[in-house]
Amino acid sequence: MRVLLINPFYPISETPSPPLGLAYLAAALKQTGVQVKILDYVVYGYRKDALQSVLNDFKPQIAGATAVTMTFDHAKQVLKEVKATDPGILTVMGGPHVSFCAQQTLETFPELDVIVLGEGEETLVDLTRTVEEAQNLDTVRGIAYRRGSKIKITAKRSFIENLDLLPLPARHQLALGRYRALGMPISITTSRGCPYKCIFCVGRKMVGAKVRYHSARRVVTELEYLANLNFRQINIADDLFTANQERCLAVCEEILKKKLEINWTSFARVDTVSEALLLKMKAAGCTAVSFGIESANPDILKTVKKGITLQQVRNAVRMCRRAGIIPYASFILGLPGETQATIKETTDFAVQLQQEGLTSGFHILAPFPGTEVREKSKELGLRILTSDWSKYDANRAVVETASVNRRMLDALALDWENKYVQYLGLIQQRIQAGTATADEASQLENLERTVILYELMMHHTIEENGSWSNSVGEMNQKKSLKMLLDRIIQQRKIDPQKLESALRHAIANGNLKCNRLNGKIGWQWQDF
């Protein structure tokens, strides 16, 4: 049995990391003897002919894509092309978006055969086995599928209680070198589940209210592996890493016991941290903690069932600073009850805390399928403007309240973007004047390098220009790089000096290599 797993396009501006969910699925499938291939359209530009080539060469019986709401349209398009190329391939989709609108998705997307609902490892393994044995899909728990003209939803599958039974994610099948070259972080999950009831989040529904944990030993075994992959940062991507302080301390103690020298970040709530915990996290390598604060208006916080106070926010920020950890905060504008006054209340609060070391980020409410804020939108006084899922990126308004319309919210978002562009422009001016700090210069250089390397990846530029016959005898790396630069510059409008700097950086970090074989030169991204 051969299974193709697909990661749909996701904007680089969203700071993506290698697709951990697909790595878990690949490991679970491989453990049962299934052959797995992963296509990652976050770091490979999508091309129909390239997809068709993979389908012809690998010949999968099942093609499965994961999707969040904003990536659903691209996932759908890829699976449509899969079906058009070979109608016999069973097409499958999973992830939070389709888990909560399965009936509607299958009714409107005839090229999709099966939806995996919720947690996917055991379900996909069961589905694969059932397909291979040509058995009835009704026996597979946790799926929705089309039988003739009817949509069938099978019995619910229980959550995996002992997460340590899952094999380590098959990260060796991911394009790690590309993410590393782009300066993106790598992620790990140490638990699943969230006991809180925020009405704008699907986490609790997707992975359960009860928090299930990997053992501290298993977590640190995985962290040891990640430490050798040369990523700049490891993100602990649990919904709530600090849900259980005792267990969180146990993980930190195990890191210290193993003497791991790693930098990592995590998510927390302001009411689940203490100074003692943050100090231990800092000692174990934690550099930053992200808090969801959402609003500075107590009534809005109560409406969205956030369950925190502004004093708890202040305390958490101050504790982070004393511990030497950078506090990040996420705010959501456009929540139920939002007015121009509450927006000012929130932005003023963020500015006040910035003076105490808080770094803030603002998003606009996106009412994703499965969230209470979508299901009760009218009752909550929200007007949902569109179900064009590609617009659900939290960067532009897709909802309005009685007092705040799309124009107002979009104007705020545009203002944030303009201020960031102005900030980068000021850094450029200071660099030219020789007054920029090393950190400022590095920040702009890293951003420019990421933009250049990403463009090369998405346009297949290295693949198309990085190989030629070496008819002139011995060619060292310096000459080979010069030829590669000349070829790229003829094809793409990129500043030659910045291009050379970006490529040299990728080479120095082992993410781009020149191979010589049988009289040919071949430049390649090192995908692992």
Explain the overall architecture.
By secondary structure, the protein is an alpha/beta fold. It folds into 3 domains: 2-153, Cobalamin-binding domain (Rossmann fold), CATH 3.40.50; 185-404, TIM Barrel (Alpha-Beta Barrel), CATH 3.20.20.70; 438-525, Arc Repressor Mutant, subunit A (Orthogonal Bundle). It has 20 helices and 20 strands. The chain has helices at 20-31, 48-58, 72-85, 96-99, 102-108, 121-132, 176-181, 203-207, 216-227, 245-257, 275-283, 298-303, 310-323, 340-354, 372-375, 406-433, 438-458, 461-465, 477-491, 496-508, and strands at residues 2-7, 35-40, 62-66, 90-94, 114-116, 143-147, 150-153, 186-188, 191-192, 212-213, 234-236, 264-268, 286-294, 326-333, 359-364, 383-384, 399-400, 467-469, 512-517, 520-525. The strands form 5 sheets. It has a 7-stranded mixed sheet, with helices on both faces. Helix 11 (275-283) links the parallel strand 12 (264-268) and strand 13. The longest helix is centred in the C-terminal third of the chain and has 28 residues, at 406-433. The mean pLDDT is 95.
